[in-house]
Fold:
Amino acid sequence: MSDAVTENDKKSVGNVADAKSAAAPQKTQKTQETDLPAGGAEGAGQEPDEFAVQISDQIESFILSVREVAKGDDPDSAVPYLLLEVSQLLLAGGRLGAHEDIVPDERYEPDVGPEPDEDDLRQRLAALLEPIDVYSEVFDPYVPRSTPVACRISDDMADVVADLTHGLAHFRAGRISEALWWWQFSYLSNWGSTASASLRALQSLVAHVRLDSPLDELDGLDTGGDGDDEEELAEEAGKVMAAELGTIGMRPAR
Structure:
């Protein structure tokens, strides 16, 4: 049974996995083309253990891959490729979520400098994924009678990359515990749910194509809305996060 499942998985990935393997040798060179922050001497000194190295490798691989997809060189493979990359990223997120609370060495977060601007990435992905960029999502499945909201895969990917890049700046500066704390906290508070929602949308798109099930009319989906609705959604989101997160990942007072 397991052999059959493995063979089916290989077939479902198809050309996407082959494309990833073919691109692997170029990854070191691509690093120079990204907006990832360079490491600094200040704060250096921590040696990452195997867990930290594995998490950082998965995160950096995701960032590089999303930027590569956004170039639009292979638009037909964009959705299955993103499905593969988001799935792998969420494995790292699951490991962070299951890990005991990570406490950084410093009470206050060191400055990592200006945050990279992900608007260009967002716009490139939006143009690439039009008209399937917008999808419906329930903010929290445990809130009774939650109203679905419209989201964008392009927004999600840019937001996740921004969160991950912030932690990567700490990692490259040698602040390993700070990087792991940030990745764990932001996974629980933001990029974990964002990536999970995108994964659901991407999986649905692939399923529609592979099962020859045409999508319904998408004109009714729109991320635009009244200001009051956006404020109400933001307030609800804040209450849910405060109730669910509590003190998870918070630094102890000295």
